[in-house]
Structure formats: structure tokens, C-alpha cells
Amino acid sequence: RDRMDEVVETRSRQIFQIVGIPTAEREEDYLIITLYSLLDNLDSYYRKDIGFLVMFASNDTELIKSKTAELHMVFSDQILDGLLFSYV
């Protein structure tokens, strides 16, 4: 089976396509605004088949903990629904 056809399973659904969102420490942080825009404007037809993966490009564990906590606070419903993931 081709790697592009692999399915990632979550607690509540299967995802057929992942959108990777790399993020790193910057003066201006647009991660939350970007995620709001993507998630709020996502058509319900596509919502069932897609997942968004936030990838942290940092070795700073405190920064990663802080950003992960912020994601869980702001997007808890989307995380529980299997729409949003994070990777360190």
C-alpha cells in the first residue's frame, strides 16, 4: 500500500489527509490566529476527513510546554474531536 494512502486513526474518526503546520519561536506568533482561520473556515464536508498537525521546531521545552498548553486551552474541542494534533 502506498504511504500516501495510509490512514491515521483517532479516538473518534479516521483521517485521510493531514495538513502540517510547522511553528518556531518568533517575535510575532501567528499560530493561534492561523489555526482559528483554518478551523473556522473549514467546510463541514472536509472536516470529517482532514486533520491539522502542529509541529514544533524548537528544543526549548518550556516554550513547547507553554504553546501546547495554550493550544489545549484554546482548541480543546478540536483536539478532542481529532481535528487538531501536535508533534514535538
Overview features:
88 residues; alpha/beta; 3-stranded parallel beta sheet; 5 strands; 38% helix; disordered N terminus
What does this structure look like?
This protein is of the alpha/beta class and 88 residues long. The protein has one domain. The chain has 4 helices and 5 strands; from the N terminus they run βββααβααβ. The chain is globular, with a radius of gyration of 14 Å. The termini are far apart.
Q: Which value, in Å, is the CA radius of gyration?
A: 14 Å
Helix content: 25-40%
Q: Helix/strand-derived class?
A: alpha/beta
State the shape. Answer: globular
Which percent range describes the beta-strand content?
25-35%
Separation of termini? 27 Å
Low-confidence residue ranges = 1-10
How many structural domains does the protein architecture include?
1
Task: Please provide the count of β strands.
Answer: 5
Characterize the largest beta sheet: strand count, sense, and whether it forms a barrel.
3 strands, parallel
Mean pLDDT: 84
Helical stretch tally: 4
SSE run: EEEHHEHHE
